[in-house]
Write a structure and sequence with these properties.
The structure is a single chain. This protein is an all-alpha fold. Helix content is 76%, strand content 0%. The chain contains ten helices and no strands. It has helices at 2-25, 30-39, 44-68, 74-95, 100-117, 139-152, 157-167, 173-197, 203-223, 229-250. Helix 3 packs across helix 8, helix 3 crosses helix 9 and helix 4 (74-95) crosses helix 6 (139-152).
Length: 254
């Protein structure tokens, strides 16, 4: 039994490395970690809560890195992040109540959406700004919805935040990335607390996955400069589709 668990955790650590690498080079690493935890045998709510440990540590590290490099817009970051918190709390509560099969079907749907979005051409519009003084009214309900989605499932939230901040606020890509990690960091705090209070966090699994992802992000930082982004996206696409098929098979829909 002990040997099986040791092998299991080694696989978890190695997969964390892979997810961390993917996250640095192409983004979307969390699209792999949640379904992987489910396939490892965790209940969907526990997998969802456990996945937040790595998300919290990685976004905290990224936010601190931006601040140390003096690349920040504190007021706007805080405002955007706080707008997502009520939705994140509601989303997390709802995710602990939905049945397993429904949640897994949603995960599969999101995975397919993310897989397809990997190959959507990026906008070449250059009319972007560094900051804004006043948020447009539409941004308030949008941030609330983003928060709900982040609390509920989180998978692919980075892509959604980047799309909305770029399209609605017209912020440039560097500013979008800065705000994105801070927004996710802040709304992950109450979300993780809810999962902890409802006993939906496997700490050992989450910490091992988090360490693996952090190391994967670290060693891939230099390697990413030599990697072809399109090739990495293809690997990510194949991995997402394979795991989606595995989840569907696990649900015995066919």
């Amino acid at each position: 039994m002990f040997e099986y668990q040791l092998t299991d955790y080694l696989l978890l650590f190695l997969f964390g490395n892979f997810a961390g690498f993917i996250n640095v080079v192409a983004g979307g690493g969390s699209t792999l970690t949640l379904p992987f935890l489910i396939l490892m045998g965790l209940d969907t709510s526990v997998a969802n809560g456990t996945n937040r440990i790595g998300i919290l540590t990685q976004t905290m590290a990224a936010s601190l890195s931006f601040r140390k490099s003096k690349f920040k817009d504190t007021n706007l970051s805080i405002k955007l992040a706080l707008l997502t918190v009520p939705g994140a709390i509601l989303g997390a509560i709802y995710s602990t109540q939905i049945n397993e099969e429904s949640f897994q079907l949603i995960v599969v749907g999101v995975m397919i959406f993310v897989a397809v979005s990997l190959f959507v051409p990026k906008s070449k519009t250059k009319e972007y700004v560094d900051t804004i003084k006043k948020l447009p009214l539409i941004s308030y309900p949008l941030m609330l919805l983003l928060g709900f989605y982040a609390g509920f499932i989180q998978v692919g939230i980075g892509f959604l935040i980047m799309a909305i901040l770029g399209a609605v606020l017209r912020l440039n890509i560097k500013r979008v990335n800065m705000h994105k990690v801070f927004i996710v960091f802040i709304n992950t705090i109450p979300t993780l607390i809810i999962f902890i209070l409802t006993d939906n966090v496997d700490w050992v699994t989450g910490i091992i996955l988090s360490i693996g992802a952090s190391l994967g992000a670290w060693w891939s930082a230099k390697l990413s400069l030599k990697m072809d982004e399109k090739f990495v996206k293809l690997i990510l696409f194949i991995a997402i589709v394979a795991m989606a098929i595995k989840l569907i098979t696990k649900m015995e829909l066919f």
